[in-house]
Amino acid sequence: MSASDHDRVRQANLSPDKIMHKLVSLAKRRGFVFPSSEIYGGLSSCFDYGPLGSEMKKNVKDLWWNSMTRKHDNIVGIDASIMMNPTVWEASGHVSSFNDPMIDDKTTKRRYRADHLIENHIEKLRKEKREEDARRVGTYYERASESEDPNKAFYDIIVAEEIKAPDTGSADWTEVRQFNLMFQCNMGALADSSGIVYLRPETAQGIFVNFHNVRESSRMRVPFGIAQIGKAFRNEIVKGNFIFRMVEFEQMEMQYFVKPGDQQEAFEAWREERFSWYTDRLGIDREKLHWYRHDKLAHYADLAYDIKFSFPFGVEEIEGIHSRTDFDLRQHQEFSGKNMEYIDQATGERYIPYVVETSAGCDRLFLALLCDAYTEDVVDGEERVMMKFSPKIAPVKAAVLPLMKKGEMGEKAARFRESLSESFPVQYDESGSIGKRYRRQDEIGTPYCFTIDHQTIEDGTVTARWRDTATQERIDMTKAGEFLGAKLA
Ligand code: ATP
């Protein structure tokens, strides 16, 4: 049995609820994620990242940013404001159609997304190899989405197919209603509608409205991309599953502008690149990642795939890859009256570029990384919990553990820690048995522990213990930085 099979067995023995319970509690106890404003009873679906969580989130964002802007000469970044001229959201279609179809269960008083209930039902039919039924419901669903009254059509499918609530098994449904997800607030002293602004529900529009600013200032030529990491806000009705669905979250989005006709090729290239980012750069288990092709497309898209992750509570989206056509730029041209065309300097051709978008949720990915890393095993006859983070994203890269606090050993350890801290986030721990100290580091996913012992004083070497296997090797203290750098590359 390989090491990764072993982890899976350990996780498979735990029920989904139990894994989530353990993760939420570890996240709080060790400073990854806290409930927001907890001393006041918290706020539904809002969370704070603690000392380790914020460090790790930053690592994830840096990896994404570098994989976009450093790795591609033709991708540059921006940081647009959260509040924008409200006409942006009329042009983008969010005011009129950023709605979710909601359905309530009268018995349990729980609320669900009607479209999700139907999609999950189709998926279930496929899994049960009832292909014909899946196709039949899929066709109804497609027609329902395009019908004049999708709410009624969704309701009819849910009732006809006897779809039950996934968590309670109840099916005492109300009718389906639309609910707009944008948060509104008032700017300035006026409380009337003239002061209404929205908290952006996606970061993408900040990129579209800056298309010419970025192109001109950075002298970009199509094809080129604009990347952005930032907060987005959605008044989600269905909440839950820890940080999976929040009302305030961070997106990592990149819009890639291409010549009309070139979008299919760009789409396939980005699909491949984004999937391998998760496996190769973040070290996520390949078997926990899945493709999902959208049958029902958003108003702006002509092709869309999701990358989904096997969370303990189900297979769910972590990133969407969308072929957004020229919809957004064309809409902004119409609503702003400004020309959004691109002129190809070489050929003189004029066109509104098509857009391929990669849109990842930082918080969902963070949760996927926690779920993927969580491992229980036995080391030296002792049960331990280990977060098997890729060293690249681990919040603490190494721990310095002196066997004795005082004297030459303590002094050497303090100096050693100081030198490593210049380049890496390092923890220093001198309290408790060495076994306990290893367990503390395993639980937060620290890849390497350097132990300073008697031999260190004699020959200047330390033991370097690798988290996953608990195996140790002796290395020269002066080479520890180099050693760590190589392991993190
Ligand atoms: P869902 O169908 O789960 O609501 P979506 O298809 O609306 O997601 P997109 O609009 O494609 O999501 O947003 C891109 C990414 O932003 C998603 O893949 C997800 O990772 C993240 N995201 C969207 N909504 C939320 C949320 N409420 N909380 C956390 N992350 C989110």
Write up this protein.
This protein has a seven-stranded mixed sheet with strand order 3-9-10-16-13-12-11, sandwiched between helices. A five-stranded mixed sheet has the order 20-19-21-22-23, with helices on both faces. The protein has a three-stranded antiparallel sheet with strand order 5-4-6. The chain is an alpha+beta fold and 489 residues long. The chain is built from 17 helices and 23 strands. It has three domains: 18-95 and 183-372, Bira Bifunctional Protein, Domain 2 (BirA Bifunctional Protein, domain 2, 2-Layer Sandwich); 99-177, Herpes Virus-1, CATH 3.30.40.230; 396-488, 3-Layer(aba) Sandwich (Rossmann fold). Strand 14 (342-343) and strand 15 (350-351) form a beta hairpin. The longest helix has 20 residues, at 51-70. The chain starts with a helix and ends with a helix. The structure holds adenosine-5'-triphosphate.
Task: Note the main attributes of this structure.
single chain; about 500 residues; alpha+beta; BirA Bifunctional Protein, domain 2; Herpes Virus-1; Rossmann fold; 3 domains; seven-stranded mixed beta sheet; five-stranded mixed beta sheet; 17 helices; 23 strands; globular; disordered N terminus; binds adenosine-5'-triphosphate
